[in-house]
């Protein structure tokens, strides 16, 4: 989608079917869920622009709580206002909850059986691959220059090596972005569509 191409508006029924599908297939935690939303909503269906998606994602990641859930609810609201937000938020959680209850029951009842144990162990590397692919996909779109990659790398080191508190890392990244915006505005500005 080019910056001048307007996203197409789905019907409420099309959106309902998408959110139901997403709720049933969204594995891999927030990174996997966000990657699926990006691929489906921005690239495939073109219901929302790339810039609007990344803008919404940035704000949802700063809010307390699950960012993928907040992003789905916000996009649902953007597409169909209150009804869309309720549908997207509800269907993002309910099918996953039912699948989790079913998988938990299977594990508790049959987890010691070699077939079931093998299935659960086989899921782990697949989910890991989904999360890594999602992080790479979103990262390459959001981090457009070396300065932004540097901030992301510093945040990674701060989280995993230094084990600094998350609010401190966010504040440090915000300060680096503010300073970068003042000193190198061409590298730290992004338009919102």
From TrEMBL:
<feature type="transmembrane region" description="Helical">
    <location>
        <begin position="18"/>
        <end position="36"/>
    </location>
</feature>
<feature type="transmembrane region" description="Helical">
    <location>
        <begin position="114"/>
        <end position="135"/>
    </location>
</feature>
<dbReference type="GO" id="GO:0015109">
    <property type="term" value="F:chromate transmembrane transporter activity"/>
</dbReference>
<feature type="transmembrane region" description="Helical">
    <location>
        <begin position="86"/>
        <end position="108"/>
    </location>
</feature>
<protein>
    <submittedName>
        <fullName>Chromate transporter</fullName>
    </submittedName>
</protein>
<keyword id="KW-1003">Cell membrane</keyword>
<keyword id="KW-0812">Transmembrane</keyword>
<dbReference type="GO" id="GO:0005886">
    <property type="term" value="C:plasma membrane"/>
</dbReference>
<dbReference type="InterPro" id="IPR003370">
    <property type="entry name" value="Chromate_transpt"/>
</dbReference>
<comment type="similarity">
    <text>Belongs to the chromate ion transporter (CHR) (TC 2.A.51) family.</text>
</comment>
<keyword id="KW-1133">Transmembrane helix</keyword>
<feature type="transmembrane region" description="Helical">
    <location>
        <begin position="147"/>
        <end position="175"/>
    </location>
</feature>
<dbReference type="Pfam" id="PF02417">
    <property type="entry name" value="Chromate_transp"/>
</dbReference>
<keyword id="KW-0472">Membrane</keyword>
């Amino acid at each position: 989608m080019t910056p001048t191409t307007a996203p197409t508006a789905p019907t409420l029924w099309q959106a309902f079917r998408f959110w139901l599908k997403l709720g049933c297939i969204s594995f891999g935690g927030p990174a996997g869920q966000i990657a699926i939303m990006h691929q489906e909503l921005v690239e495939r269906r073109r219901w929302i622009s790339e810039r609007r998606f990344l803008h919404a994602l940035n704000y949802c990641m700063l809010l307390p709580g699950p960012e993928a859930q907040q992003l789905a609810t916000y996009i649902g609201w953007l597409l169909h206002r209150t009804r869309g937000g309720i549908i997207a938020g509800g269907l993002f959680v309910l099918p996953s909850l039912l699948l989790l209850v079913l998988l938990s029951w299977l594990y508790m009842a049959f987890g010691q059986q070699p077939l079931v144990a093998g299935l659960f162990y086989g899921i782990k590397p697949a989910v890991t691959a989904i999360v890594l692919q999602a992080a790479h996909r979103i990262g390459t779109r959001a981090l457009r220059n070396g300065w932004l990659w540097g901030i992301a790398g510093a945040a990674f080191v701060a989280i995993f090596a230094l084990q600094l508190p998350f609010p401190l890392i966010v504040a440090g990244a915000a300060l680096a972005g503010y300073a970068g915006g003042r000193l190198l505005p061409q590298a730290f500005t992004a338009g919102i569509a």
